[in-house]
UniProtKB/TrEMBL annotation:
Top-level taxon of the source organism: Eukaryota
Protein name: Uncharacterized protein
């Protein structure tokens, strides 16, 4: 399923209570965890600080590799998703994260009918679902747009469920009606990997360059980009893994 606007993949803040330092940077370890960390947990968090990805990631086959990009074919998967207006979460585009985290039981009892805890995966997928449509007239979607228009965008956030769930009906049914279980079919992307902070400016540059390279090499672009961020927010920027992905045929 491809949406008409840009798609972003993000790894929002799961843990609260990050302490700010005098330099203005956030402490890398959640303060609420400091008194509870075992040596194993400390090692795990330090691994994340230095960019280690310790959760399941989507399965794919590399079809082509060039100096500029990879072409990947992703296997079918099952996703839990929620669509919302960020204004419902005080303007936070990642506001749906807690809804999905509650569904899988990341922060307590799972909010599904079994109930069954579901392992966290990466990346977390955030898609721009377009603009809210007025009751009296359609809203025309244009590239760019004013700040007011950007605030009017709906967002769809997904967690890709572990590969052990091969069909949507195999996943536990959500008790929160906002959560939808959806099957994603086999899909193909042109992908560029990069480190550092995935700012809007950097992402825009990567997307434009990738799109031109794909079209030059004869690939048909069939949807808008995805931005993949695989690390939690306390990962040192130089060790982060980011990916720009564009769907192709």
């Amino acid at each position: 399923m491809y949406l008409r606007r840009g798609i972003q993949i993000s790894y929002p803040l799961l843990y609260k209570g990050l302490k700010s330092t005098s330099t203005g940077h956030q402490n890398l370890i959640p303060t609420s965890f400091n008194s509870k960390l075992t040596p194993f947990h400390s090692q795990s968090i330090m691994g994340m600080v230095f960019g280690k990805i310790g959760v399941e990631t989507p399965k794919y086959e590399v079809i082509k590799t060039t100096e500029e990009y990879e072409i990947r074919k992703y296997a079918p998967s099952v996703a839990a998703e929620v669509t919302y207006d960020p204004s419902q979460f005080k303007g936070n585009k990642d506001g749906g994260f807690m809804v999905l985290a509650n569904y899988i039981g990341a922060l307590g009892n799972p909010q599904n009918t079994k109930p069954e805890k579901i392992a966290m995966t990466a990346p977390v997928i955030t898609k721009d679902a377009g603009e809210k449509i007025a009751m009296t007239a359609p809203v025309v979607t244009k590239s760019g747009g004013s700040e007011d228009e950007k605030k009017n965008k709906m967002v769809t956030m997904q967690f890709i469920l572990p590969a052990s769930y091969a069909k949507a009906e195999e996943a536990p049914k959500p008790t929160d009606e906002r959560v939808v279980i959806r099957e994603e079919g086999e899909r193909k992307y042109g992908v560029v990997k990069f480190g550092g902070v995935a700012s809007d400016e950097v992402v825009k540059e990567k997307v434009e360059k990738l799109r031109l390279s794909l079209e030059r090499d004869g690939f048909k672009v069939v949807g808008d980009f995805l931005l993949g961020r695989y690390n939690p927010p306390w990962t040192i920027p130089m060790f982060r893994t980011n990916e720009v992905m564009i769907p192709v045929e």
